[in-house]
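Morning run. Coffee first, then this:
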Amino acid sequence: MIFKELAPWVMFLTLVLTASIAIKIKKVDVLCIDGLIATIGIGFGLIITELNYIYSNNYMITLGPLLTLACLLYLRYRNEILDDVKPNFNFKKKH
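And here it is:
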């Protein structure tokens, strides 16, 4: 299969995986700054995936789906990822 024939399948699989992961995302996780940035990343990933249908090459065909799925998985497992990171913002008064 050449990449032009593979692009519709990649688009379909990306949309199916996106829908199945997005169902489990809570609205609270999207309404924070990192959630909004991840949502923008999902949008850009879907745009790149759609552009692969017009212009397909072997380098760009995986970039869009990977960006989309990485941002979706971050939103889905955001609380588990951020549980390990405990920022310490104890500033002195002069700061």
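The mean pLDDT is 82. Good start to the day.
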